[in-house]
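Continuing the batch. This is chain 6 of the set; chains 1 through 5 are on the previous pages. Same settings as before, nothing changed between runs. Recording input and output for traceability.
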Amino acid sequence: MNRTIRFLTWIFFAAILYLILAEALAPWLHLPSLGNIAFTAVFFLFALSHCLAVEGPRRTLQFFAVSAVVSYLMEEIGVRTGLIFGAYHYGNGLGAKLGHVPILIPLAWFMMIYPSQSVAKAMLDGIDFSSIRGITALSAVAAFVMTAWDVVMDPGMALGGSSPRFQSSYTASTLSDTSRPTTSPSYSSSPSSPWECPRS
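Output for chain 6:
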């Protein structure tokens, strides 16, 4: 079973590399590619299968459940009230919605939070993640990694001076990442991001 999951993880990883390469070469070479929804689904499956292979089913379920619930609630409250991320809404380009938030969005949060945690673990090599100090450090650094990724992925937000958006993204990432497995692991102006749609 574990060998199968690891094999699928490599397949999804190779698919991600191809899709990124196809997008990068698009101005000069037209290669078959997928839209934002499918790209996000492939990346989510990679993160999920990697987490399963490394952490096992129980911890993966815990991690995914907490990250999905926290991210969905923050997004739903944000869309309805504008109090968390500022005023914004999701159009219909990201598929079916639960309330005001596309179902794809919580999957995309996990897609980013889990790899961010993996990077944070590498950066904090040698720290005991079973201690309160270790959990706090891992959650904080993973949230910084994800927020930095968000800045790079959606440069329009940084240019728009939307620091509250990134502060809220950091907060949501930190809250979600406290469920991490303990083993030693302004807004986008165009829909180029695999999980963001234009917000207004």
